[in-house]
Each structure stands twice: as C-alpha cells, then as structure tokens.
# Entry
Amino acid sequence: MIVVSDPENISRAAALLAAGEVLAIPTETVYGLAANAFDESAVAKIFKIKGRPNNNPLIVHLCKFEQIAEVSTAFDSEKMRLQLEKLSQFWPGPLSVVIPKRSTIPDNVSAGLATVAVRIPGHSVALKLLQSCALPLAAPSANRSGYISPTSAQQVEDEIGDAVKLIIDGGACQVGIESTVLSLVTEQPTLLRPGAITIEQLSEVLDEQVAVYKQAKDSSVASPSPGLSYLHYAPITPLKFTEQIDFDKLPERSGLISFKPTQAELPTSISEQRCLSKSGNLDEVARRLFATLRELDQMQLNLIIIDNCPSDGLGKAIMDRLERATQRYQ
Ligand code: TXA
Ligand code: MG
# Structure
C-alpha cells in the first residue's frame, strides 16, 4: 500500500521496522526495500521478496556520520576515519562506502563478507525515517533481483506491492540510478560501481587516485562486490544500442529511447519513441532512464533501441547500467 510521507506514517513505518517488517522507502537514487540491519530474520525477508542470491550483500543506510561506529570498526583505523571524514562531504548523498563490518551486523547483510557498505541517503523522507526509528536500515533496490530499479512508489507497488506492508511515497527519485560504491578495504580506494558521485570527484576529495574494479573474466576469482557479477537492470524486451542497429532491419513494433531530440525521420517500424532530455543533459537522462525502460518494457514491443553516451562523469554510470542491460541480447 502506498502512503504519503506525513509524520504519522513515518512513525508508523518506524514502528513496523522496529518490529521486524520490511518496507519500501524512497531515496534520492532509487526506491529501497528496507529492514532493521541488526535483525537477521527481517533482513532474510528482503532476500526472499527480491529472490536475491544470498551471496549479494546489502547496503546499510544511516542518518548520521557517527552512526558508522554502530555498524563498522572503521574508526579504529586513523587512516580510514580520515578517508571517511573527507568522503562525508558527499553525504547525505548517492555514495556507498565499503568498510570493515562490526559483529553487530548479521552475516546475511554482508553476504558473509567481513565488510559492510554504508551510506547516508540524500532524501528528506529517508532521513526522517532513519532518525525516527534510530536503526541502521539495510536496503537494496526495491525490485525483483535482476530487473530494473524502481524510481517511483507506483513502480514498487506494481512489481512487489503484495509483498510489502507499506510503500512510503517520496515522489520521483532525483538521481535515478543507484549510488556509487567505493571500497576502502582494498589497497587503493576502489570504485566498485559507478554512480552520480564520479571517480574524478572521489580522487580529488581523497587526494589519492581511485582505482576502478575490473570484473575478472574467470568466474573462479572471488569478486569484491558479488552483486556486480549478476545480470542487472535488464528489461524483458530485447534491448540494443541504436548505433548497433541497421534501421532498415528493425522489427515491427520497435521502441526508441533517445537521450536528446532526434533530427532524422524515423522508420514506421518504430511505434514508440521517448526522448529523455530536450538538451541531452545527462542528469535528466539518468533521472528518467529506468522509468522509461520500465514503461516501454510493458508495451509488448519486439525490440527497444537506446542511445549511448561517452563513458565519463555521470555517463560512466549510465553506460555501466546500459551495458549490463543490453548484455543479455549480445
Ligand atoms: O542507491 C543505492 O545504492 C540503492 C538505494 C536503495 O540506496 N541501493 C542499491 O542496493 O542499489 P543494491 O542491493 O541493489 O546494490 C548494492 C550493491 C551490490 O552491487 C553489492 O554487491 C554492493 O552494493 N555491496 C553491498 N555491500 C557490499 C560489500 N560489503 N562489499 C562489496 N560490495 C558491496
Ligand atoms: Mg539492485
């Protein structure tokens, strides 16, 4: 059930979370499926609802910097405390940081890893709820495992509405793609997942070059971020990049998602067309990307074709998601 985020519903949600329930909450990136991060059986419900492999760890959401000490031993290290203090200028915001886990956090949150990912979300409703329940909240994106992350309360309702007690409406997500994930437990700070906070920003603030994690082709090599090895963000309808497509050979009922208005006359095989930004602005593209993929995925199209962009700045995060989403069909 979708509810407005008034004080009464925030208190009700906080009480449900304290009682071990799972709720959908808005964040500035995507909607999350939240449970008390200290409660192993509440966290187990998240995995069940999502159909999530149990080797894929969850991000723990906090409302203030000092709360890191409740879930992590990072402050025992002067070096790591300093790194976290520098990174805290991105909080509240779309950055998750992987640090050593404290034993207060059950193993299912971290999928058995000795680390935990934490972030302070930049959405006023998420922050109010975190403050009200005074608990760290484990929350993956509120979609079924492998599908596109939801960026509105209605998308959560449509996909998993039956499985959650409450969906708190916080409007459309302003960022639209999942947080940047940065590991501080590697020799050099390492970007595990690109997001709206870019590698350039991270390197500058840390005053240290951030490395980029490259997924090993050999699946026997343990991944530092197991979630990254899964097929992700993929619509059911085949998805391809516009530049790989011969327009004369498009199947009937194809959909086109462009990043800016298209000049060219389109073939009649394109029956649905969406433009994500009038000016090709990548913030806008990211904000509308997942909702548009979901919308076209419900139209029984034979193919969806989508633009690409240079893989730097926010473009790196957009292309990361789209390369995964198109992978299934290559
Ligand atoms: O923007 C976001 O991060 C959203 C909102 C709800 O906060 N959450 C989100 O969660 O995208 P999820 O579960 O869909 O993605 C979490 C990613 C996974 O790729 C996982 O592998 C990585 O974070 N991760 C979590 N804990 C980790 C850890 N201890 N070590 C390495 N990677 C970790
Ligand atoms: Mg996800």
